[in-house]
């Protein structure tokens, strides 16, 4: 990505977030929620590189956006869970579960709408554009990427818990979002070459996190007062997903132990 593009992309990302919020207000849909959340993650990476995020995240408007972001994440999680679970039901058994699930989904969507109503996108845009007025230098970009690489290494020195996988994924995502801003020169050639590997690892980490999320949602469903046949289906699904999680974690552990973002 050529020089001078960082600030331009800050404006583009803010515009995309605003457009996505307008779509969600009209009718919450998974595509708009996904676009909004990814755009913010890309924006957050730029703010972290520039060193501004640590200050901006304490601002009141950022705290309001955090509520929007988390509420949107809850809607996204239930959408993923619902889509994955429906295949386990027959036409006869799905009715009661879908009716209960629809009520919970509506509740989460209402929480998202309330969070959006309390959020001021104009103030959010203003505080960011007022703070980040210049592109970040190449040395700062490289330093940020190296810091994220070191953070991954530190996490890999701990037991690979679900929380650790979530943190590792965030570091991989930040590396992935920062790499395109590096110039194609001798200093940056090796880092840029690793983009494909970083992308593949981020996808694997995301798949594992999604499985964890589905299991959390499933545990909530199992605590509900549902018919015995529905509980039986949920318990069977839980076994399948636990086995999937085990296989994913086994592969992920091997991949991470052999991964070298930089040789």
Proportion of residues in extended strands: under 5%
**What is the average of the pLDDT values?**
89
Structural class: mainly alpha
Separate helix tally: 11
DSSP strand tally: 0
Query: In percent, how helical is the residue content?
Result: over 70%
Order of helices and strands: HHHHHHHHHHH
What would the principal axes of the Cα set say about the shape?
flat
Specify the biggest β-sheet.
none
Instruction: Measure the end-to-end span.
Output: 24 Å
> Are there runs of 5+ residues with pLDDT below 50, and where?
none
- Gyration radius from CA atoms, angstroms: 21 Å
Folded structure, characterized:
By secondary structure, the chain is mostly helical. Helices cover 79% and strands 0% of the residues. The protein contains eleven helices and no strands. Helix 2 packs across helix 4 and helix 8 runs antiparallel to helix 10 (195-222). The model has no long low-confidence stretch (mean pLDDT 89).
Q: How are the secondary structure elements laid out?
A:
Layout: H1 5-26, H2 30-50, H3 53-56, H4 60-85, H5 94-117, H6 121-131, H7 138-156, H8 162-178, H9 189-193, H10 195-222, H11 228-258
Summary keywords:
11 helices, mainly alpha, 0% strand, flat, 263 residues
Task: Give a quick summary of the entry.
It contains 11 helices and no strands. The chain has helices at 5-26, 30-50, 53-56, 60-85, 94-117, 121-131, 138-156, 162-178, 189-193, 195-222, 228-258.
């Amino acid at each position: 990505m050529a020089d001078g593009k960082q600030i331009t992309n800050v404006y583009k990302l803010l515009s995309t977030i605003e457009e996505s919020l307008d779509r969600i207000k009209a009718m919450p849909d998974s595509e708009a929620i996904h676009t909004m959340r990814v755009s913010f993650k890309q924006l957050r990476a730029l703010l972290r590189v520039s060193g501004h995020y640590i200050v901006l995240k304490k601002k009141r408007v950022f705290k309001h956006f955090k509520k929007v972001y988390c509420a949107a994440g809850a809607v996204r999680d239930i959408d993923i869970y619902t889509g994955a679970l429906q295949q386990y039901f027959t036409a006869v058994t799905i009715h009661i579960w879908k009716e209960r699930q629809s009520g919970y989904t509506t509740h989460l969507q209402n929480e998202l709408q309330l969070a959006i109503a309390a959020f001021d996108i104009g103030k959010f845009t203003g505080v960011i554009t007022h703070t980040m007025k210049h592109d970040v230098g190449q040395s700062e970009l490289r330093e940020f990427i190296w810091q994220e690489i070191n953070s991954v290494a530190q996490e890999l020195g701990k037991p690979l818990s679900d929380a650790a996988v979530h943190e590792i994924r965030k570091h991989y995502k930040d590396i992935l979002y920062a790499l395109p801003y590096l110039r194609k020169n001798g200093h940056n050639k090796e880092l840029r070459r690793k983009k494909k590997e970083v992308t593949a690892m981020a996808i694997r980490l995301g798949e594992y996190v999604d499985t964890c999320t589905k299991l959390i949602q499933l545990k909530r469903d199992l605590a509900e007062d549902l018919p015995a046949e529905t509980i039986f289906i949920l318990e069977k699904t839980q076994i399948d997903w636990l086995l999937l999680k085990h296989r994913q974690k086994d592969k992920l552990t091997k991949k991470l132990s052999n991964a070298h973002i930089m040789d």
